[in-house]
Amino acid sequence: MVKVSDLPDELLRYLFQMLSPEDRKAVVLTDRKWRQVGEDPVFWKWCIIRINNGNDLRKLSIGRFKYIEEIVVFSHFNWQAHFLQAHQLEKLLQDTLELPKLKEIKGLQLDLNFINPHLLGKSLGKLEFLRLVGINNTTNDQNMAIFKEMAEKGCMKKLRLAFISLLELEVKKLSKVMSGLQELELIQVSFTNDQVSAMFTSISENNQLNKIELDSLSVSLVEPELFGKAVTNIDIVNLDNMEISPHQARALFTQMGQNRKIKKFYAHVNLSRADPKLIARGLSKLEEVRLTGFTLTDEQVLSIFRELKQNCKLKVLELPLHNLSSVHPNDLSKVVNNIEVVNMCWCELSAEQITAVLVRTQRNTKLKLLNIRDNDISEVDPVILATAGEIIEELYVDDVESSVEDYENVDDENMSFD
């Protein structure tokens, strides 16, 4: 009878790799040979190490965990006052230097002010995913050390920065880091004008970046053509609380209308000064659009729906709080029913417009979700509403979520949309 100890290591490794995570944990306890094979860290890189207290730091020195990619830190306690002392947090960061495959440390919503800048830079700068926020209370020296390491290692893929100042960061290092990113989120981060311009130059040349979120970033001195080229060179764009000049808006929507890389555009910015035809043509080339916070002009609204009636690639259209009452009911119904997800809550829609949209669903529609809450439906035929509720998977009217089930066996007398 062939014993496990008689099998060649290559075969054992192959068999071990075929096992589920739970089976791997069990089999290393059954046989010495299995344990020897199973100690290879390659087989355990899927593990997530959770650090709940100081004793858990021992996990990081276990050989089989050498190639782990993720650590989760329990940060609901002050490490300096509760389970983990300051020196233990430093030990955690020091131990991560011996984990060559580590990509992310989750849960570091902690005060890092007391950590040696060189150590913090070496530990965080080698990661692929990093979230650095105001609560970390990092010093200027620490931030410089982190970016220095990120620029040298070139590993960072997803970077989220919020409520911190990088005014003293070298432009060259900032550009180097930006050039390798796949996702970037900046929320109220302080930059100089030169840094912002350099960042947009890097973004315009970075073909890897596929998602960006910019909140409260001053772009007033960014050249319009550079701004348009950079923003439209990204798949998913979210601009929040930013002032965009008319020239920047023109460049943005001109580039957008030329079938650039951008696919999804979410904006909470004032676009009222943007050229109606340019904004309409630009948005028609996208897959998803969400415009919130500022009201489009009637001319812009009409141009958008006129263009979407002829050319529309959109799967999602969200225009909450925009006055759409000027759109002809037939144009509105045709556009809306050619899109999968539409949000028109609080858009001052007339009963005629709503009726046209809902009646058209009975003939032909792509609609899967329609939100028309906070529009007056008092004069809309309840039967039309009920019928639409049977066709559209998710229909939101006022405070009622309707679906096929919601409207089954509903008659005119008991129908309510309170």
Strand content: 5-15%
Rg estimate, integer Å: 28 Å
The number of helices is: 16
Helix/strand-derived category reads: alpha/beta
Q: Averaged pLDDT, please?
A: 89
- CA distance, first residue to last residue: 76 Å
Task: Bin the helical content.
Answer: 25-40%
Output the strand order for the largest sheet.
4-5-6-7-8-9-10-11-12-13-14-15
**Which spans of ≥5 residues are poorly predicted at pLDDT below 50?**
79-83, 399-418
Number of strands: 15
The best one-word shape is globular
What can be said about the biggest beta sheet? 12 strands, mixed
Main attributes?
418 residues; alpha/beta; twelve-stranded mixed β-sheet; three-stranded parallel β-sheet; 16 helices; 36% helix; globular; disordered C terminus
How does this model look, in words?
This protein is of the alpha/beta class. It is 36% helix and 15% strand. Strands 4-5-6-7-8-9-10-11-12-13-14-15 form a 12-stranded mixed beta sheet. The protein starts with 8 loop residues before the first helix and ends in an 11-residue tail after the last helix. Residues 79-83 and 399-418 have low confidence and may be disordered.
